[in-house]
Design a protein that fits this description.
By secondary structure, the protein is mainly alpha-helical. The chain has 16 helices and four strands. The strands form two sheets. It has a two-stranded antiparallel ribbon with strand order 1-2. The longest helix is centred in the N-terminal third of the chain and has 28 residues, at 73-100.
Length: 408
């Protein structure tokens, strides 16, 4: 079955091969395993970019193929990061407390109180919130990476889709969900340190001996693996009958419902599936970023996600990947001070300040003049090729394309 799927979708095999080659090249050029031509910070940037490509695939599934413009999918991305970040911060703080105890034995309660004081002293409390009860268990927190975002998407989707909320109203609801959760997390009593967020996530407990050079490459591998599996799962989802129904719902939901298909069930499945994909991407992203706070899941982040997919070309999985990678790397170049300032004589353009304006303008131009985004360039080049007629007669009368030739 796998061979049949790949043979019918050669672009999947091409993408996976290109991803594997990219990962190997970066590994061999890194400081830890190769020629030391690429800095550790750049390896982290590339690893984070792969995670953003993964959530872009999720966005393309729900918007490009299903027709649901979700302006809240970065919530699931952030929640995945928070769940794994809780364990990272708890375990790291536990190691610090044990080291500072100078070998003196601590009771479980004393250890818990010391950890709570270290983590939550910044928000004026020394008690460990109830949601941190199992933060010391990595398997439990990894399970929550899927359970919490998945349950939120399931409940929200069920309430929205059963009410048959569609179009711009559904987009507003997803944005309202994002704003409500972000505002709640900004509060100090949310249990997640409010505006301070979770920090020091790049220090992986038990792997201090490896150093950031190796850790950055390991996370690059994990991100590439997750992206490859996510792309494969997404491509399998949109192929065959299920994918045809998805596109039919996007194009004419009323007719699909009239034909007897459970439209709400399809929507709920895809919405929840993409939330899980986004959560996995977030769980891999924030240990590389080193910090997460509520600003990461503000509504603007989900709007950026839609912009990435639109620029790359929605309705094409590789287009979403292309858009996310392009915008992420160009954004790093502009906002990192690498782009030289543009002196106009009467005004100096500092790209750090003007990058968001440029991004918004790009979205408007793509929407108006290039709805297929960057992936449309492939169609443009493909259209310049002469047709492959193989010298055969061109139809019943000379000049028309034969059916046999069209099928070959």
């Amino acid at each position: 079955m796998t061979q049949g799927f790949l043979s019918k979708n050669p672009s999947v095999l091409i993408f996976l091969s290109a991803l594997a080659i990219f990962t190997l090249v970066i590994t061999f050029l890194s400081n830890a395993y190769g020629a030391e031509l690429i800095s550790t910070s750049m390896v982290k940037t590339l690893g984070k970019t792969l995670c953003l490509c993964l959530i872009a695939i999720a966005m393309d599934l729900v918007w490009g193929y299903m027709g649901i413009l979700s302006l809240g999918h970065f919530v699931f991305f952030g929640l995945g990061g928070y769940m794994v970040g809780m364990w990272l911060m708890y375990a790291r703080t536990r190691d610090i407390v044990l080291q500072s105890s100078a070998g003196l034995p601590l009771t479980p309660q004393e250890l818990s109180d010391a950890i709570a004081s270290q983590i939550f002293g910044v928000v004026g409390t020394s008690e460990l919130p109830a949601i941190w009860a199992f933060a010391g268990s990595l398997p439990f927190q990894l399970t929550l990476v899927l359970i919490v975002p998945g349950l939120l998407a399931l409940v929200f989707g069920w309430l929205a889709f059963r009410s048959r909320v569609t179009g711009v109203y559904l987009s507003i609801l997803t944005q309202a969900m994002t704003l409500a959760l972000a505002l709640y997390l900004f509060q100090n009593d949310s249990g997640l340190r409010g505006n301070n967020g979770l920090s020091g996530l790049q220090n992986i407990p038990g792997l201090a001996w490896a150093g950031q050079d190796r850790l950055s490459v390991w996370f690059l591998w994990a991100s590439a693996l997750a992206l490859g599996l996510g792309y494969l799962a997404a491509a399998f989802t949109v192929s065959g009958k299920f994918g045809s129904v998805m596109r039919a719902i996007r194009d004419d939901e009323a007719r699909v419902r009239f034909l007897g298909y459970p439209v709400e069930g399809y929507k709920l499945f895809v919405f929840t599936l993409t939330a899980l994909i986004a959560a996995i991407a977030g769980a891999l992203y924030y240990p590389q970023a080193g910090i997460i706070n509520p600003a990461e899941i503000a509504p603007i982040a989900s709007i950026y996600l839609a912009v990435w997919v639109a620029i790359g070309g929605r309705g094409r999985l590789w287009g979403a990947v292309l858009g996310a990678a392009f915008v992420s790397l160009v954004s790093t170049w502009f906002t990192g001070g690498r782009a030289p300032d543009l002196n106009l004589g009467f005004y100096t353009v500092k790209w750090v300040d003007w990058w968001q304006v440029l991004l918004g303008l790009s979205f408007v131009l793509v929407t108006l003049f290039a709805p297929k985004g960057l992936s449309g360039l492939v169609d443009l080049f493909d259209g310049l090729r002469p047709p492959q007629r193989r010298g055969a007669p061109l139809g019943p009368d000379d000049g028309a394309l034969q059916e046999r030739e069209a099928q070959e």
